[in-house]
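Record type: monomer structure entry
Structure origin: computed from sequence
Chain ID: A
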Amino acid sequence: MVILMLIILAATGTFAPDPTATSVAAPPPTEAIAPPSSHAVTVLFTLSDSDLRQDCEGDGGYADIGPGTPVRLTNESGVVLGATSLSEGDYSGGTCTWTLTIPDVGDAQFYSIEVGDRGQITNSSSEMEASGWSFFISLG
Protein backbone atom coordinates (compact mmCIF):
# COMPACT_ATOMS: atom_id res chain seq x y z
CA MET A 1 0.00 0.00 0.00
CA VAL A 2 2.83 2.40 0.90
CA ILE A 3 4.65 1.61 -2.35
CA LEU A 4 1.48 2.30 -4.31
CA MET A 5 1.09 5.71 -2.60
CA LEU A 6 4.69 6.62 -3.39
CA ILE A 7 4.20 5.69 -7.02
CA ILE A 8 1.07 7.86 -7.17
CA LEU A 9 2.88 10.78 -5.51
CA ALA A 10 5.81 10.39 -7.90
CA ALA A 11 3.51 10.34 -10.89
CA THR A 12 1.65 13.46 -9.82
CA GLY A 13 4.74 15.33 -8.67
CA THR A 14 3.12 16.31 -5.36
CA PHE A 15 6.14 15.37 -3.26
CA ALA A 16 8.54 17.70 -5.14
CA PRO A 17 9.68 20.86 -3.36
CA ASP A 18 7.72 24.03 -4.06
CA PRO A 19 9.91 26.21 -6.32
CA THR A 20 8.19 29.38 -5.00
CA ALA A 21 8.92 28.61 -1.35
CA THR A 22 11.47 30.79 0.42
CA SER A 23 14.01 29.44 2.83
CA VAL A 24 14.15 30.69 6.37
CA ALA A 25 17.47 30.78 8.19
CA ALA A 26 17.63 28.86 11.42
CA PRO A 27 17.81 31.05 14.51
CA PRO A 28 21.29 31.53 15.95
CA PRO A 29 22.21 29.00 18.62
CA THR A 30 21.53 30.11 22.16
CA GLU A 31 24.39 30.33 24.60
CA ALA A 32 24.89 27.01 26.34
CA ILE A 33 24.29 26.94 30.05
CA ALA A 34 27.26 25.48 31.85
CA PRO A 35 26.37 22.61 34.15
CA PRO A 36 27.19 23.13 37.81
CA SER A 37 30.72 22.06 38.59
CA SER A 38 31.34 19.02 40.71
CA HIS A 39 34.24 17.92 42.83
CA ALA A 40 35.50 14.72 44.36
CA VAL A 41 35.92 15.33 48.08
CA THR A 42 38.59 13.29 49.85
CA VAL A 43 38.30 12.54 53.56
CA LEU A 44 41.42 11.46 55.45
CA PHE A 45 40.24 10.26 58.87
CA THR A 46 42.61 9.06 61.60
CA LEU A 47 41.68 7.42 64.91
CA SER A 48 44.39 7.04 67.54
CA ASP A 49 43.93 5.06 70.76
CA SER A 50 46.26 2.80 72.69
CA ASP A 51 43.35 0.32 73.06
CA LEU A 52 42.55 0.33 69.34
CA ARG A 53 42.25 -3.14 67.85
CA GLN A 54 44.07 -4.16 64.67
CA ASP A 55 40.73 -4.56 62.86
CA CYS A 56 40.21 -0.80 63.42
CA GLU A 57 37.12 -1.35 65.56
CA GLY A 58 37.11 1.36 68.19
CA ASP A 59 36.85 0.37 71.84
CA GLY A 60 35.64 2.13 74.98
CA GLY A 61 34.88 5.75 74.14
CA TYR A 62 35.50 5.04 70.46
CA ALA A 63 33.26 1.96 70.20
CA ASP A 64 31.09 3.83 67.69
CA ILE A 65 33.99 4.16 65.22
CA GLY A 66 35.02 1.39 62.85
CA PRO A 67 34.15 -0.25 59.54
CA GLY A 68 30.57 0.63 58.62
CA THR A 69 30.45 3.96 60.46
CA PRO A 70 28.54 6.43 58.25
CA VAL A 71 30.25 9.52 56.82
CA ARG A 72 28.02 12.35 55.55
CA LEU A 73 28.84 15.50 53.61
CA THR A 74 26.27 18.31 53.75
CA ASN A 75 26.02 21.90 52.51
CA GLU A 76 25.22 25.07 54.46
CA SER A 77 21.50 24.18 54.43
CA GLY A 78 22.02 20.67 55.77
CA VAL A 79 21.31 19.04 52.40
CA VAL A 80 23.28 15.81 52.00
CA LEU A 81 25.74 16.20 49.11
CA GLY A 82 27.22 12.73 49.46
CA ALA A 83 27.62 9.86 51.87
CA THR A 84 29.79 6.82 52.36
CA SER A 85 31.00 4.74 55.28
CA LEU A 86 34.28 3.71 56.82
CA SER A 87 35.69 0.58 55.26
CA GLU A 88 38.56 -1.50 56.58
CA GLY A 89 41.07 0.94 58.01
CA ASP A 90 44.85 0.79 57.76
CA TYR A 91 46.19 -0.11 61.23
CA SER A 92 49.63 0.90 62.46
CA GLY A 93 50.60 0.87 66.14
CA GLY A 94 47.44 2.19 67.80
CA THR A 95 46.33 4.31 64.84
CA CYS A 96 43.84 3.54 62.10
CA THR A 97 43.60 5.62 58.97
CA TRP A 98 40.82 5.72 56.42
CA THR A 99 40.92 7.50 53.06
CA LEU A 100 37.48 8.01 51.55
CA THR A 101 36.27 9.71 48.38
CA ILE A 102 32.85 11.25 47.90
CA PRO A 103 32.44 11.79 44.13
CA ASP A 104 30.37 14.33 42.19
CA VAL A 105 29.88 16.89 44.96
CA GLY A 106 28.19 20.04 43.69
CA ASP A 107 29.02 23.64 44.53
CA ALA A 108 28.11 25.09 47.92
CA GLN A 109 29.17 27.99 50.11
CA PHE A 110 30.05 25.68 53.02
CA TYR A 111 30.76 21.96 53.31
CA SER A 112 30.31 20.00 56.54
CA ILE A 113 31.62 16.49 57.10
CA GLU A 114 30.53 14.21 59.93
CA VAL A 115 31.88 10.78 60.85
CA GLY A 116 29.23 8.85 62.78
CA ASP A 117 27.60 11.16 65.29
CA ARG A 118 30.84 12.86 66.35
CA GLY A 119 29.84 16.36 65.21
CA GLN A 120 30.45 18.25 62.03
CA ILE A 121 33.58 19.94 60.76
CA THR A 122 32.77 22.78 58.37
CA ASN A 123 34.94 24.39 55.69
CA SER A 124 34.09 27.22 53.32
CA SER A 125 34.24 26.74 49.58
CA SER A 126 37.52 28.67 49.43
CA GLU A 127 39.00 26.50 52.23
CA MET A 128 37.97 23.38 50.33
CA GLU A 129 39.58 24.66 47.15
CA ALA A 130 42.77 25.56 49.03
CA SER A 131 42.93 22.07 50.61
CA GLY A 132 42.51 20.31 47.26
CA TRP A 133 38.89 19.44 48.13
CA SER A 134 39.98 17.43 51.17
CA PHE A 135 39.07 17.13 54.84
CA PHE A 136 41.74 16.04 57.31
CA ILE A 137 40.17 14.73 60.51
CA SER A 138 41.76 13.10 63.54
CA LEU A 139 40.17 11.71 66.66
CA GLY A 140 41.98 10.57 69.79
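Annotation 1: The beta strands are 38-48, 70-75, 80-85, 90-92, 95-106, 110-115, 120-124, 134-139.
Annotation 2: Residues 2-12 form the longest helix (11 residues).
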